Amino acid sequence: MVLADMTQVSRQAIIEILRQVQDPQRGGDIVTLGLISDIIVDGAKVAFSITTDPDRIAETEKVRAKAETAVRAIPGIESVTAVLTAEAMRPAGGKTEQAAGQPVRQSIAGAKAAVPGIGAIIAVASGKGGVGKSTTAVNLALGLQYLGLSVGILDADIYGPSLPRLLGITGKPEQLDGRTMKPLQALGLKLMSMGFLIAEGTPVIWRGPMVISALTQMLRQVAWGDLDILVVDMPPGTGDAQLTIAQKVPLAGAVIVSTPQDLALIDARKGLAMFQRVEVPVLGIVENMSTFVCPHCGKRTDLFGHGGAKDEAERLGVPFLGEVPLDIAIRRTSDEGKPIVASDPDGSQAAAYRAIAAAVLGALENRKGNDQRRPPSIVIEE
Length: 382
Fold this sequence. Notes:
By secondary structure, this protein is α/β, with parallel strands linked by helices. It contains 11 helices and 19 strands.
């Protein structure tokens, strides 16, 4: 039997099993009710979505758990990921009231199901690679920890994970119950990365759906425990994986990292625009590699320009969180797995990251205190 036929049989087996899962409040099985979508089968790994009304997240979570358990019982299935999604729910008559010519707009607040035990999730993103995003994410997490918070990091770059090298840690996560993984720990941070699951240098050759499935598992099937903040080191760019994270992860906000160079700022605008489009608050912009001071003569040189990210933040109306110099000590400690905030906490470089961490925390508290955050939403054109 060819692979395509095997995949088709597996999908059908999954559908038949899901027909046995009832939604008590709607009075029917979740397949007949049309709640199942995006069934992805890759060998022994399965992922699918269950549509829910935004007001029924808690009730549907019980149905989701039953569906996941039912599919996992199929012989040969090794892992299952079921996620909740939401869309505008229509009344019985099939029509949704709207102004003439206007799209129907339905909030999906709560559709991004919270991760138990985590107070806030923030994304550290960049419009392109090579701007020091991962180094910034790790030192930001340590800076937040310095402020007295319990912090974890999720390395969401499936194709190029860097967390193991940046924190000098290796090993595989412990399986707690055959489904949930125990995060690794370093310098007081809880960690999860594809780099812990595959050997360094091994390429991950996956299509988009499997990347999304892996990210979902690393977020929701990890025993994070109680964390004040989970920092998500986003993949560079604004592709499918980045957009899916922004849409499905309950992000409290995003931090954009850029160098002051005009070319980098063009890509930073794209990343910022992506978050704004899915209504994730942008907490601010960090200017990395802001300036270089020669360790021998003390002369300052702006290799990539200076102040461009600050000017861009002012132009776009988002906070400027601070700048980090281009410094050999930051590069060296990162390569050695000893981030500068931990290895030289009293140095000027660490002080720059701690100041950015304080600014990020202030932005989070300010948004919460002033109730400025709008719930994410989707637009369905009639």
